């Protein structure tokens, strides 16, 4: 009985243990199912992320040295639908020659067992039709083992077509380069300034209830002075250095208060009012001074961004109108002079309309004065010169220009002219003062001179050619008289002929057997003499 009771208890204990193990297995299976579900969800998220991100997948099979690619990779690489494996050498061949070595080095570095296995690179891919695409590739190598036994077991990753991004980057770089080129090359003084602190200070005044800013700036000159000090100069162009007499940009960028005058302060208050009222442009005439204290009369123009945008890059342009102002004072004196000038004098508006013409213009073009004032400058230009008109007109406004062109009379005939054009300001507007001289006689003299020069050059060339021929005959005579051994003499003659008379020379004689025998061969390129000998050997003259 005791043994039977003991056995029963053992069975009950074993049953309880089995029940506990079964519950643990159920719990573990439940955890596995949860983990499996989580894994499937993560895989689905990853798949969706790859799909949304237009990522292609790839894997380098280390045992076959082939790259396995998915559908998106086939699209990126321009491969057929049935392509799955591509040998690694073929993959490298498809990479742009300038990037190929760099990509190969990055792959080798990533699969090195002693590396971290990380792979990230941008490169250009060349499609079979010659199209270039930019690709961003990311990858990770997997390793097994430690130390010296560590080895690479897998290398996989993704690729993203970034051609559009690269094109945008290239366009932005080109745009920035164009901006910088224009900024530096233009003949107008340009300043790039940071008004963000000034904008913030004015916004704070608005918040505090200030409404009449003109009155406020008048009553608080200290705010205006602080605003001047708040402006940060970011950059200036070369024209600005020349205009203000600065040696370096750094010198001018720290000299804003030094170039201010009382008139400049009034213009600056108008700038502050433009910011306060949300205007994006403001222009006026004002007075500045160089670092040496010389006054400059300038046309000041500033462009602000919309009030909602950053004021960190505000463009200011300064056009030196000092000479133009001085010209205005003398313009009336010149009007009398122009009427008695033999040169054509025209005053031309910015749109090309002729505003004024002197008597010489009436005589030269065959129009009455009223007819001239109803026409534009393009009406006086010969059609073949239209393409350059806008550029010349623009340069005349900016800094003046001297050029030659062709003008046309009322009867359709044309005549060459030299034009000196300069922007000036009348009482009402900026105009072009154009002084035009008929250079028909000068052109005729130049043509005759060119003809005589060509004749002289032809005569000189003929004389030099005759001299070379005489020299050759003399040298040939010397060679022929130098030796009685005809083979040596004829070989010397062949060498003399090249290159005086020809690029190559061959001398053949009729031997006793009645056939031609090659005695000498000469060529301007000594390396090709053997070619001539071989050509004669293979194809002897009949």
Describe it for me?
By secondary structure, this protein is of the alpha+beta class. It has six domains: 1-47; 53-168, Beta-Lactamase, CATH 3.30.450; 186-320, 2-Layer Sandwich (Beta-Lactamase), CATH 3.30.450.20; 341-438, PAS domain (Beta-Lactamase); 442-480; 483-542, no CATH class. The protein has 19 helices and 18 strands. A six-stranded antiparallel β-sheet has the order 3-2-1-6-5-4, with helices on both faces. A hairpin with a 5-residue loop joins strand 14 and strand 15. The chain is flat, with a radius of gyration of 44 Å. It starts with a helix and ends with a helix. 17% of the residues are buried. The model has no long low-confidence stretch (mean pLDDT 85).
Helix content: 40-55%
Mean pLDDT across every amino acid position: 85
Report the span from N to C terminus: 136 Å
Largest sheet: 6 strands, antiparallel
Give the strand tally: 18
CATH superfamily of the largest domain: PAS domain
Query: So how many helices?
Result: 19
Q: Which percent range describes the beta-strand content?
A: 25-35%
Architecture of the largest domain, according to CATH? 2-Layer Sandwich
Strand order of the largest sheet: 3-2-1-6-5-4
Number of domains: 6
Q: What sort of overall outline do the alpha carbons produce when their principal axes are compared?
A: flat
Please give the CATH class of the largest domain. Alpha Beta
At CATH level 3, the topology of the largest domain is Beta-Lactamase
State Rg: 44 Å
């Amino acid at each position: 009985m005791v043994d039977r009771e003991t056995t029963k208890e053992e069975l009950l204990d074993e049953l309880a243990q089995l029940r506990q193990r079964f519950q643990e297995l159920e719990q573990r299976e439940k955890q596995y199912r949860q983990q499996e579900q989580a894994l499937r969800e993560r895989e689905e998220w990853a798949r969706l992320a790859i799909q949304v991100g237009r990522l292609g997948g790839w894997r380098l099979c280390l045992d076959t040295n082939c790259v396995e690619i998915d559908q998106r990779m086939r699209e990126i690489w321009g491969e057929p639908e049935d392509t799955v494996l591509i040998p690694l050498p073929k993959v490298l061949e498809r990479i742009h020659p300038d990037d190929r070595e760099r990509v190969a080095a990055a792959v080798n570095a990533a699969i090195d067992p002693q590396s971290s296995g990380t792979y990230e690179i941008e490169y250009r891919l060349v499609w079979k039709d010659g199209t270039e695409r930019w690709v961003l590739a990311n990858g990770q190598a997997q390793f097994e083992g430690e130390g010296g036994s560590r080895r690479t077991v897998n290398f996989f990753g993704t690729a993203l077509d970034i051609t559009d991004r690269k094109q945008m980057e290239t366009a932005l770089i080109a745009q920035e380069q164009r901006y910088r080129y224009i900024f530096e090359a233009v003949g107008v003084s340009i300043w790039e300034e940071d008004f963000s602190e000034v904008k913030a200070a004015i916004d704070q005044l608005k918040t505090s209830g200030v409404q009449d800013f003109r009155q406020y700036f008048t009553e608080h000159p200290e705010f205006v002075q602080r605003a001047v000090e708040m402006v940060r100069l970011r950059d200036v162009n070369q024209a600005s250095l020349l205009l203000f007499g600065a040696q370096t940009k750094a010198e001018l960028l720290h000299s804003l208060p030094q170039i201010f005058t009382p008139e400049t302060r009034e213009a600056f208050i108008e700038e502050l009012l433009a910011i306060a009222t949300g205007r994006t442009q403001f222009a006026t005439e004002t007075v500045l001074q160089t670092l040496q204290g010389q006054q400059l009369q300038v046309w000041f123009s500033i462009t602000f961004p919309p009030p909602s945008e950053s004021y960190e890059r505000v463009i200011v342009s300064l056009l030196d109108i000092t000479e133009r102002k001085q010209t205005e004072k003398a313009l009336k004196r010149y009007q009398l002079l122009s009427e008695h000038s033999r040169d054509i004098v025209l005053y031309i508006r910015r749109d090309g309309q002729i505003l004024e013409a002197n008597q010489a213009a009436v005589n030269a073009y065959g129009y009455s004065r009223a007819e001239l004032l109803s026409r534009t400058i393009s009406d006086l230009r010969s059609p073949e010169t239209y393409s350059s008109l806008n550029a010349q007109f623009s340069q005349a406004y900016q800094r003046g220009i001297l050029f030659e062109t062709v003008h046309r009379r009322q009867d359709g005939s044309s005549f060459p002219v030299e034009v000196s054009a300069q922007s000036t300001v009348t009482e009402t507007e900026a105009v072009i003062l154009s002084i035009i001289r008929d250079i028909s006689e000068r052109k005729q003299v130049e043509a005759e001179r060119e003809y005589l020069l060509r004749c002289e050059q032809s005569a000189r060339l003929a004389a030099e050619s005759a001299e070379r021929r005489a020299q050759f005959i003399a040298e040939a005579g010397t060679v022929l008289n130098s030796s009685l051994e005809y083979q040596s003499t004829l070989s010397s003659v062949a060498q003399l002929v090249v290159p005086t008379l020809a690029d190559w020379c061959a001398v053949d004689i009729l031997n006793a057997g009645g056939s031609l025998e090659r005695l000498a061969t000469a060529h301007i390129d000594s390396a090709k003499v053997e070619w001539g000998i071989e050509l004669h050997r293979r194809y002897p003259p009949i």
